[in-house]
Specification:
alpha/beta; 6-stranded parallel β-sheet; two-stranded antiparallel ribbon; 14% strand; globular
Length: 435
């Protein structure tokens, strides 16, 4: 039977008001209760997503009877392609290449830059960049096309310009070496200097027309970024409703801090890839989390740590470490205490899957056709997943189902395996329906 108009309106109310509404009575007026802030009706959301987000904020925020200001509900956002269109790490990296801000490594030894870099990549970089600058000096990547192109190929494609693998031997659930390499190539600069690069790149990318390109090393790359207005509004509404709002990103910490200010998130609520610092400047080594110690690397193949970033399981680890204070190996595991997990989370990529699975309330997915994430989102274990198309240039429908039950996901070794939901169950194949 189709519900009555009254029933459909009543379901949008909190429980006490719902009961009064269904009975035909006026809901009780609580003059001491804060007013819930709803999403801006002018912002476009797919289907019933706006209603579900508003209901989630009513259920957990300041106008909920269970709300406690001393223990705010946690909301966690991925950044790149979740809150903004395009990638702020890319934008800063491209700016640095265009303005000669990548430094030649100590002793011209590229093995310092990543424990996972291959001999083929080291040889390619030596050939392209070895004579371009002294050790520790900035490389002239604005004019030396071969050097710029080699660095860009390794970062963007994970391969040398000759097609050889640039990285090997990493755990696919903890690390993406090319993402880490961007942060590692900030070595030699202070936080203020890196944020200067990021701020200039931000100004340029926000001003550039949509779809604009720039040429780095003879290769065309994007030169624009936009903040999604609906996500900016959602972050503002969550904050006004008493949520503790954080960003967890696989871009470098100082870069995301600069961009997060665009949506009112303070630097102390940003978690990105974090470098070890010494004498006020970043080094090539990365801070550790869980069972991974702070990194060391002697450039001769002897390295510790440097093997986990804010990527898939690493995002869970850093949430547990920074937000909940867990510096033990257990930070890599799902916290059995549901009060120490996000209530709301948003992401767009497979790198976000673990902290989204951990989330106890609503899980918002921006559809970029990423297989593991979309299998989980459409599988919708627990009925808490919602999907929204990209707000700018949404992807067309994937015409064939995601092969979730057989090979849409990857294990730690990078092998294709069936996808599993947050309860450990294999997910059935899923059609792409929100695009």
């Amino acid at each position: 039977m189709r519900p009555s108009v009254r029933s459909r309106l009543c379901t949008a109310l909190p429980l006490v008001s719902f009961l009064h509404c269904e009975s035909g009575q006026s809901p009780p007026l609580d003059l001491g209760k804060p007013t819930c802030v709803a999403l801006d009706a002018a912002q476009s959301w797919s289907g019933t997503n706006r209603d579900k987000l508003d209901q989630m904020m009513r259920s957990y925020g300041v106008c909920s009877d269970a709300y406690a200001a001393s223990k705010k509900p946690l909301a966690v956002f991925d950044w790149d392609n979740t809150v903004v269109k395009n990638d702020v790490g890319d934008a800063t990296f491209f700016y640095m290449l265009a303005h000669d801000q990548i430094r030649q490594p100590p002793s011209k030894n590229w093995r310092f830059t990543s424990r996972f870099i291959t001999g083929d990549a080291v040889s390619a970089l030596d050939t392209a960049c070895g004579s371009a600058a002294a050790a520790g000096a900035p490389l002239p990547t604005s004019t030396n096309m071969a050097c710029a192109k080699e660095i860009l190929s390794i970062y963007v494609d994970g391969k040398t310009t000759g097609g050889k693998a640039a990285f090997s031997g990493w755990d696919y659930r903890r690390m993406e070496p090319a993402y880490a390499w961007l942060s590692q190539l900030l070595a030699g600069y202070s936080k203020a200097q890196v944020q200067g690069f990021a701020s200039t790149a931000k100004t340029e990318n926000l001003a550039s027309p949509i779809d604009s390109k720039q040429t780095i090393g003879g290769v065309q790359v994007t030169s624009w970024v936009r903040v999604y207005d609906p996500m900016k509004n959602l972050i503002s509404a969550l904050s006004q409703n008493g949520f503790d709002v954080w960003v967890v990103s696989a871009s470098p910490q100082p870069i995301v801090e600069v961009w997060a200010a665009e949506v009112g998130i303070a630097a102390d609520h940003v978690i990105g890839i974090r470098n070890v610092e010494s004498a006020g400047v970043y080094g090539y080594d990365l801070l550790g989390c869980g069972d991974v110690p702070n990194g060391t690397n002697d450039g001769s193949g002897n390295a510790t740590g440097n093997s986990l970033i804010t990527y898939i399981d690493g995002k869970r680890c850093w949430i547990n470490k920074v937000i909940y204070g867990d510096s033990t190996a257990a930070a890599l595991q799902r916290n059995p205490d549901v009060s120490k997990r996000p209530v709301f989370a948003a992401g767009d990529s497979d790198t976000d899957i673990t902290f989204l699975q951990d989330t106890t309330g609503l899980k918002l997915v921006i559809n970029r056709n990423k297989k593991e994430l979309m299998c989980n989102a459409y599988g919708n274990a627990g009925g808490r997943w919602i999907v929204n198309p990209m707000f700018i240039q949404p992807r067309p429908q994937q015409t064939t189902p995601y092969t979730c039950s057989s090979n849409a996901c990857k294990d730690a070794a990078g092998a294709s395996v069936p996808c599993r939901d947050e309860n450990g169950a294999v997910i059935a194949d899923q059609a792409d329906t929100v695009f």
